[in-house]
């Protein structure tokens, strides 16, 4: 599934968040979406899911306008989403949440049980967690369950908002391996994250949002070879954050 946009613009009130974005992400790509807090990464993911509408411009899925394409349920079912929050019903057990999400996607969980159990076994050490209520889950457990839900129906387009936040290093490694195993020539994965070292291990392409526009959009190789070898220093150079003095802060906090 190829995705893209032409002249995509989104504002909240008078604040322009995304301004005239034009891009293409080809099948087989894993796009790392980077940018400072408030740069508009989640906003772009919301637009790609179809939850929010752009003010102007066109979102393209397999070359078709997302608004036209969205009318086709089959296409919607090919999208998997890990939102930043609000995905789980705290009252349900994890197993109930899995069944509920499967119902929403219109898939028969019993015939996909091998796949679901394989994902759960891989991400959770102990499968008894599936009988616990989501409300009792730790941050990392919620994230892992959210990932399983996002991949439940083997989507061709996967949109992951902060998949690594709240994960311990071992769990993050599992998720990196999981994403690399899922990546395939007919799929696209979009990963919004602040964790550069993790992004580096999964992304084939990078998009850096800054001040409503892409400061960079291209392959990982092009990004890191454009003068710097390290992802973090390349990003810092691109976004050029101001060095701020901590003198006043020190005085106030002393
Ligand atoms: N529903 C909303 N109503 C009003 N403003 C919003 C809304 N959603 C996002 N914004 C604003 O849009 C801007 C972009 O927010 P967004 O959540 O997309 O950023 P982000 O890059 O995902 O940030 P972070 O890295 O902190 O998660 C912010 O200034 C935010 O306050």
From TrEMBL:
One of its GO terms (molecular function) is ATP hydrolysis activity. The keyword Transport applies. Signal peptide: none annotated. Residues 3-236 form the ABC transporter domain. The keyword ATP-binding applies. Keywords: ATP-binding, Nucleotide-binding, Transport. This is ABC-2 type transport system ATP-binding protein. It comes from the Bacteria. InterPro entries: AAA+_ATPase, ABC_transporter-like_ATP-bd, ABC_Transporter_VariousFunc, P-loop_NTPase. SMART domains: AAA (SM00382).
């Amino acid at each position: 599934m190829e995705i893209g946009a032409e002249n995509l613009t989104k504002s909240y009130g008078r604040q322009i968040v995304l301004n005239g974005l034009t891009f293409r992400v080809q099948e087989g790509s894993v796009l790392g979406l980077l940018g400072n807090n408030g740069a508009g990464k989640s906003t772009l993911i919301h637009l790609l899911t179809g939850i929010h509408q752009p003010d102007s411009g066109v979102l393209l899925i397999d070359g078709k306008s997302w608004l036209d394409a969205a009318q086709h349920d089959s296409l919607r079912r090919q999208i998997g989403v890990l939102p930043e929050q609000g995905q789980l019903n705290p009252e349900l057990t994890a197993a109930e949440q899995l069944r509920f999400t499967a119902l929403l996607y219109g898939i028969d969980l019993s015939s996909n049980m091998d796949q679901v159990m394989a994902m759960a076994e891989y991400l959770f050490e102990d499968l008894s967690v599936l009988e616990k209520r989501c409300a009792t889950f730790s941050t990392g457990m919620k994230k892992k369950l959210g990932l399983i839900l996002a991949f439940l129906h083997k989507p061709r387009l996967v949109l992951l908002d902060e998949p690594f936040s709240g994960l311990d290093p071992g769990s993050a490694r599992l998720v990196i391996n999981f994403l690399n195993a899922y990546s395939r020539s007919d799929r696209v994965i979009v990963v919004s994250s602040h964790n550069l070292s993790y992004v580096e291990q999964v992304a084939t392409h990078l998009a850096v949002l800054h001040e409503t526009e892409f400061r960079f959009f291209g392959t990982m190789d092009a990004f890191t070879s454009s003068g710097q070898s390290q992802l973090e220093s390349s990003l810092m150079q691109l976004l050029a954050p101001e060095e701020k003095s901590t003198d006043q802060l020190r005085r106030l906090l002393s």
